[in-house]
Amino acid sequence: MRPNILLLAGAALWAGPLAAQEQATMGPADPAPAGPLLYAPELAGGTPADVAEAARAGTPVAALPDALKLAYWTSPTLLAQRAAVRSVDYRVPQARAAFGPRLDFQVDYGITRSGTRTPGNGWSDGTYRSATATAILTQPLFTFGRNAAAERFAMAQLGYQRQVMRSTEQQAMLDAISAYVGLLRDRASVDIARDNLDTLERELSDNRARLKRREVTSTDVEQVETRVELGRAQVYTAQRDAAASEATFLRMIGAPAGALAAPNPLRLPVETLEAAYAYAEGHNPVLIAATEREKVSRASLESAKADLMPRVDLKGQADYTNSWSPPSFFNQTGRQDQRSVAGQVVLSGPIYESGLRQARVGEAIAANDADWRLIDASLRENRATLAAAWDDWTAQTAAIERFAGAVESARRAYDGALLQEKAGLRTTLDVLDLARELLLARSNYNSAIASSYVAKARVLAAMGALEQGWLLPDEPRYDPATHFDKVKRRGDVPLLTPLLREIDRLPLGSGSARALRDPAAPRTAAPVALDPVKELPVP
């Protein structure tokens, strides 16, 4: 092939400015490197033995269930979220501790130096030393809901964080599925691009032979050469995309990809979009998290209201004081010991604070109203997301069969055009156009299969069903309640804590979920209506 002067000139025009720009934007020398990161492999407790072994060995993944298990048990983002939930578990025993007694101590030691001067006797020493030990016992009896609201606040925070964790789990599953199917698609795209290049190279070889026999012109050969070069560039692009998908696969799953098998079919727990709406109301983690967030601000409101009321506490105090002073007429030894024990029931409460507490109540009311309205917004967003995912899955699934038919038709048209070209009934450009149509049909068919699978996974995610328990029902799952059950009653005083909890909860409401106030809440979008396929008569 002769060199293209215009292309070379264009490359030179690009190279000059780019080199100058790179030189101009170069900053000062980079600082000294900090050195490699420390590496100490460790998986969270409870990881299944087979998953842990595969993760440590870096075994290439060959099936989608293996990829899902690795993502579920080894994703750093997911492990971090589980640890965050465990940290919130401890807020519940912190709140429950307010129902029990509190014992504090205080130790004081002091020296006071003084002197008195009398005529004829000089200075007299009046140094005084004292040491005091105090024990203070405080037991809340009735706080008009303060302590109970604090416990509700902690429980609502825990419920919210658990839904965030569920959302993170489902995102990890969706990312793993997208990475797995995306790599299969991009690997197939490389094969399709190579097949197209092979086809074009055979066409180029045939046209060069025909040019020697003067059956075609040099223009025909150059047309094929153009398509061959474009085909080679398409192969490079497909290989680049596949390499990027390999990196994404490793990031989302945590292990390299081997020879990937076709993914197992996904199941839906419902059959219609209307049933999917109803399912999502009870399972979608984002929607449930909005409900839990409203409970958090509602507990803050209850606490602010309780702060307007008095409280009743039982207090006890024991003191022991040892003091020493110079001997006097009344105290020949100069030393005194004192002991005292006191108990009291204290009723305390605010009288006037210039409207401070009432302002806090007003703020809490408005904040809770905002969170209440956000439940409605979450429902609208969830239904829109679910409808879009459902319609995408429906359309992509329906398009697969159409693309398959297009591939077969394009292949037959191309094979027939090759025979017609040899008979002089088709031009080289006709054959090249049909080859491009075959490439386009195969690429669209390949993309439609992957897009349909991922769209169905998005439907499951929007419903709240893209979880380990649904995708792999026979595999072990992480249960956040296991850790919570171990710590939730730490510090409880038997009999006393349950009794005071029930008494303190009397002024509060039920704490149940609230009704939606959005007038559009009952409305749902209908699924996409696809036009039926018309079978045209064959002449």
Quick overview of this protein structure:
The protein is of the alpha+beta class and 539 residues long. Helices cover 60% and strands 12% of the residues. It folds into two domains: 62-99 and 154-308 and 363-469 and 486-527, Up-down Bundle (Outer membrane efflux proteins (OEP)), CATH 1.20.1600.10; 102-142 and 311-348, Outer membrane efflux proteins (OEP) (Single Sheet), CATH 2.20.200.
Furnish the topology, listing elements before pairings.
Layout (H helix, E strand, L loop, with lengths): L4 H21 L23 H9 L6 H11 L1 H14 L1 H6 L5 E11 L2 E4 L3 E4 L2 E15 L3 H67 L5 H36 L19 H11 L1 H22 L4 E14 L10 E14 L7 H67 L5 H36 L4 H4 L8 H8 L8 H9 L35
Antiparallel strand pairs: 1-4, 2-3, 4-5, 5-6
Helix pairs in contact: 2-3, 3-6, 4-6, 4-13, 6-7, 6-9, 6-11, 8-10, 9-10, 10-11
How far apart lie the N and C ends? Answer: 47 Å
Number of strands: 6
Largest sheet: 4 strands, antiparallel
CATH H-level superfamily title of the largest domain:
Outer membrane efflux proteins (OEP)
Q: Determine the CATH topology of the largest domain.
A: Outer membrane efflux proteins (OEP)
Q: Helical region count?
A: 14
Given helix and strand content, the structural type is alpha+beta
In total, the number of domains comes to: 2
CATH class of the largest domain: Mainly Alpha
> Architecture of the largest domain in CATH?
Up-down Bundle
Which residue ranges are poorly predicted, with pLDDT under 50 across at least 5 consecutive positions? 5-20
> Globular, elongated, flat, extended or rod-shaped: what is the shape?
elongated
Spatial order of the strands in the main sheet?
1-4-5-6
Rg result: 39 Å
Query: Into which percentage range does the β-strand content fall?
Result: 5-15%
Order of helices and strands: HHHHHEEEEHHHHEEHHHHH
Helix content: 55-70%
